[in-house]
Amino acid sequence: MSLRQMEYLVAVVEEESFTRAAEALHVTQSALSHQIKALEREVGGPLLERLTRGVRLTAMGRAYFPHAELAVRSARQARRAALAAGGAETGELHIAAVHAQAVGVLPAVCARWAEEHPGVQLVLHEYATTEELYEHMARGVADMALGPRPEGWPGPVTVVGRERIVLVVPHGDPLAARESVRLAELADRPWVRCSLEPVLDGRRWLDLECERAGFTPRTAVRTQHSSTAVRMAVAGVGVLLTAAHELTGMDCAQVPTDPPWRRDITVFSRVELTGAAAEFVALLGEFAERGEQ
User: Fold this and answer.
1) How far apart are CA 138 and CA 80, in angstroms?
2) 253-268 and 157-169 strand pairing
3) Bridge partners of 261?
4) Which of 159, 211, 240, 260 would you call most buried, defined as having the most Cβ atoms within 10 angstroms of its Cβ?
5) In a 3-state reduction of DSSP, which class is residue 72?
6) pTM over 0.70
7) DSSP letters of 228-247?
């Protein structure tokens, strides 16, 4: 089986269509179908089920696909790394991030990058949860990932900064004028919870901290995205603990915690980063350091 055949399979699965995959690969649909059938013969069974509208993986395909995807993406990363190490100022740099980091940390960094490296296009892969981010990075979806420190990650992990965690309340809230607030003071408050909360040892970070403070948080609403959680807190639905960088442009009160909380912002990858990728990490560190104030 060839890497090209695997690339064709990945394209069909991603596009959910032979027609769209052929267009993306700039090949004829008949040539694409021929290569997929050749791959299936070599593997020993059908990998794709042709449906009236689209395609889906068979049981054999679901077992085979993650390995094919990793091989294809690793080959692409290897080519990008080689070009970057050779001083090439063209190509793509793929970055994976949870939505909150993409919104809060990356815009200013990407703007500077576009000025200084106009030939290197940035491709951003966003995920709703850290679990999705780690899963897709393990499958080789991007050159690097930006997010909370991953537990047990087998590749390089670099701390590029620390994000400041603050309490979010409306301006009219009694806590808005406080210089700081202790977690124990929030025991009777309803909470806005988000699926992006970090997980430590299998438990949500906020649950662990509240338990140490002697109470269980009462959830008023649970959201999928941090931006929605912030807006819920601003509307007075409940209190929210989140990174200060997520509140840029929001009309709300930010109250520091007592003691102050910081959380590492890390970049992690499957291999050591060189060339353009290493330069991007250095730029991230420069901007993340400013955000720690």
Assistant:
1) 18
2) antiparallel
3) 165
4) 240
5) helix
6) no
7) HHHHHHHTTS-BEEEEGGGG
